[in-house]
Design a protein that fits this description.
- By secondary structure, the chain is α/β, with parallel strands linked by helices.
- It has 2 domains: 9-177, NAD(P)-binding Rossmann-like Domain (Rossmann fold); 185-317, no CATH class.
- It is built from 14 helices and 7 strands.
- The protein has helices spanning 27-36, 49-58, 67-73, 86-95, 118-122, 141-145, 160-169, 182-209, 215-233, 241-244, 247-260, 265-281, 287-305, 313-317; strands spanning 17-21, 40-45, 76-79, 104-107, 126-132, 150-154, 173-176.
- Strands 2-1-3-4-5-6-7 form a 7-stranded mixed beta sheet.
- Strand 4 (104-107), helix 5 (118-122) and strand 5 form a beta-alpha-beta unit.
- The protein starts with 16 loop residues before the first strand and ends with a helix.
- The relative contact order is 0.08.
- Residues 12-132 form the Putative oxidoreductase/dehydrogenase Rossmann-like domain.
- This is DUF2520 domain-containing protein.
- Residues 149-275 form the DUF2520 domain.
């Protein structure tokens, strides 16, 4: 159940003109959500053909213009560019006098907090970091997915209510993240979401190699149940040969992966060692079974990497 209530009218942002700098997958979706809340998108910038198509689909009739012109037209500006481009963009906009006093400047980077907007703050802007913890497709479905999506929010204390109100208006749930914790927060999301895509894609490829005609249909219920169990129970949800200490099965897995998909071996071993550590620490893996399992993993790790040992995992687990 949500811990946040819809803001009272006195706490809600006034109806704002909205601009988007960087029409990637995120910006147009957020602007479309703000439009549903009564705000008015008025300008968007995009360079690539794909970004222009996204803007046309999600923000029809909103004109395309250079970033400086977007800031001139908008009360609220969404800076939705890649992380590495954000500091330079902010500095450039501030140096060229594009930033107006009292203008809400919002970036959606998970890595950065509000401090990256300091050049704009010195020019009088109101800085907000609102990062949606969601994967985006660049299609209208993204607007629907924002319902109930958590946002990592970082802003000066005096802007906290405004930041939370904007998130709620987009259908999201604000979660306050301290400035110094933004990189760790973002690393946690990348570990869980980005790497999950890689693992699922590899699993589907291996199933096709094994002769499964519909790997997505096979994996869907299994992965859905595993995710639900993990979110509900944490490490207690661990199952499978590593958590059980089935060293022979794990050795057979690695042999098959070496034969059919050698590029997956390093990832399998790394995840197996991490799983063994967690299973042992939580009493799911019996110490007497862990010995053989970790010997298997250490032995295969030596062969896969050409380096000795198992990066300390065996010693930590024991």
């Amino acid at each position: 159940m949500s811990t946040f209530q819809q803001p009272e009218p006195k706490d809600r942002p006034a109806r704002l003109t909205v601009g988007v700098v960087g029409a990637g997958r995120v910006g147009p979706a957020l602007a479309a959500s703000l439009r549903l809340a009564g705000h008015r998108p008025v300008a968007v910038s995009g360079v690539s053909d794909a970004s222009r198509r996204r803007a046309a689909e999600l923000l029809p009739e909103v004109p395309l213009m250079p970033p400086a012109d977007v800031l001139r037209h908008a009360d609220l500006v969404l800076l939705t560019v890649p992380d590495d481009a954000l500091p330079g963009l902010v500095e450039g906009l501030a140096e060229t006098g594009s930033v107006r006093p009292g203008q809400l400047l919002v970036h959606t980077s998970g890595r950065y907090g509000a401090r990256v907007l300091d050049p704009a703050l010195r020019a009088g802007a109101l800085p907000l970091a609102l990062h949606p913890a969601m994967t985006f497709t660049g299609t209208p479905v993204d607007v629907q997915r924002l319902a109930g999506c958590s946002f990592g929010v970082t802003a000066p204390d005096e802007l906290r209510m405004a930041a939370e109100a904007l998130v709620i208006e987009m259908g999201g749930e604000p979660e306050w993240i301290a400035e110094e914790n933004r990189p760790l927060y973002h690393a946690a999301l990348a570990l869980g979401a980005n790497h999950l895509v890689t693992l699922v894609a590899q699993s589907m490829e291996l199933l096709r190699t094994a002769g499964v005609t519909a790997p997505d249909r096979m994996l869907g219920p299994l992965l859905g149940a595993a995710l639900d169990n993990a979110l509900r129970s944490g490490d207690a949800a661990l199952t499978g040969p590593v958590a059980r200490g089935d060293a022979g099965t794990v050795a057979a897995h690695v042999a098959e992966l070496r034969a059919h998909a050698p590029a997956t071996v390093a990832g399998y071993l790394a995840m197996a060692r991490a799983t063994a550590d967690r299973a042992l620490a939580h009493g799911l893996l019996k110490p007497e079974l862990a010995e053989d399992l970790l010997d298997v993993l250490a032995g295969h790790a030596d062969g896969a990497t050409g380096a000795g040992g198992s990066d300390g995992t065996e010693g930590n687990a024991r």
